[in-house]
Amino acid sequence: MIVSLYSTKGGCGKSTLAVCLAAYWSQTRKTALLDADPQASLSLCRQEVLHVPVFEDTSKGIGKTIAKLAGEYERVVIDTAGYRRRKNIEALAHSDFVLIPCKPSPFDVREAMEAVELLREIAGAKERKRAPLPYAIVLTMAQRTAVSAHIREELEHSGVPFMSAQIGQRVAFVETPIVGFPPAGSVAALEIELLAKEIRRRLKA
What we know:
Layout: E1 2-5, H1 14-25, E2 31-35, H2 47-50, E3 54-56, H3 62-72, E4 75-79, H4 86-93, E5 97-102, H5 106-123, E6 135-139, H6 146-156, H7 171-179, H8 187-204
Parallel strand pairs: 1-4, 1-5, 2-3, 2-4, 5-6
C-alpha cells in the first residue's frame, strides 16, 4: 500500500503526519518512508526510535524508486513537495491513496481544494496506470473552537472526500520524529490509529 501526503500549503503538518502514519504501521507491517521533498524534512527522523527506514528521491525517476520500495515493503508512506511539480505528479500517480492535510482555516481549505483539482487531473492522466485515485482531506491541528467546527461542517458538505478522523494540535506529534511514536493509549496515538484504519477502510470500499 502506497500512501502519499500532499499539500501546497506550508505548516499544515504534512511531513509530521507522514512520519506518524509510518511509525504506526511499522508496529505491525514492514514500512518505509520516502522523502520526495527537496527540503528533506524527514532527514531529521531518528530511525532508532521510529524503526522506519527513510529513503530520499527527488529525481525524475521517482516512479521507479516507488515501485522498488512497494516490492520490498508492505507500507510505503511518501512525503511529497509542497508545490506543484512534475516529480510530485509522478509520485501521486503511483499512489494507492493520497491524504491532503488541511488546517481549520479558510486559507488552508482553499489550498486543499486546489490539491483536489490536481488529483482529479492526475486520475485521468497517462501517468496513472490504474484508476481510480482515492484521496481525502484530513483536518489537522484541530482544536475545540467555533472556527474548527465551522470548517469541518463546511468540508463535510463540500462533496469532496473528507476523513472522519482528525488530528489535533498536540506536542506528541511534533516530537514523533525524535522520540518515537506516542505511547499506546494516548490521545495522539489513538488519533493516528483511527486515521490509519479509515484509510484502509476507504481502500477496501
